[in-house]
Amino acid sequence: MTEYEFQTLTFPRETSRSDVRRALAEQAEYGHWELYRVRLYLGGMRRTWLRRKIIRVRRTL
């Protein structure tokens, strides 16, 4: 089974869509994160969940 680690980013209402897109693209490019979920709340706050695979290295003898 594949294991993932998650990161949550929260953007206030005043943050433009282009700034959010730029921040998510930066995380994806440099941190190897992929977009998992986006939630837009009633007050305008946007919360995003990012995930990436956990790669476990097994020891060989």
What can be said about the biggest beta sheet? Answer: 3 strands, antiparallel
Number of strands: 3
| Helix/strand class | alpha+beta
What is the approximate shape?
A: elongated
Low-confidence stretches: none
**Percent range for β-strand residues:** 35-45%
Topology pattern, helix = H, strand = E: EHEE
- Indicate the percent of residues in helices: 10-25%
Provide a count of the helices.
1
Average predicted confidence as pLDDT: 94
Distance from first to last alpha carbon = 24 Å
Our Rg estimate from Cα atoms comes to 15 Å
Strand order of the biggest β-sheet: 1-3-2
Features:
about 60 residues, alpha+beta, three-stranded antiparallel β-sheet, 1 helix, 3 strands, about 25% helix, elongated
Quick synopsis:
This protein is an alpha+beta fold. The chain has one helix and three strands, in the order E-H-E-E. The longest helix is centred in the middle third of the chain and has 15 residues, at 17-31.
What does this structure look like?
With 61 residues, the chain is α+β, with helices and mostly antiparallel strands. It has one helix at residues 17-31; strands spanning 4-11, 34-40, 46-53. It contains 1 helix and 3 strands, in the order E-H-E-E. A 3-stranded antiparallel beta sheet has the order 1-3-2, covered by helices on one side. The protein is elongated and about 55 Å long. The model has no long low-confidence stretch (mean pLDDT 94).
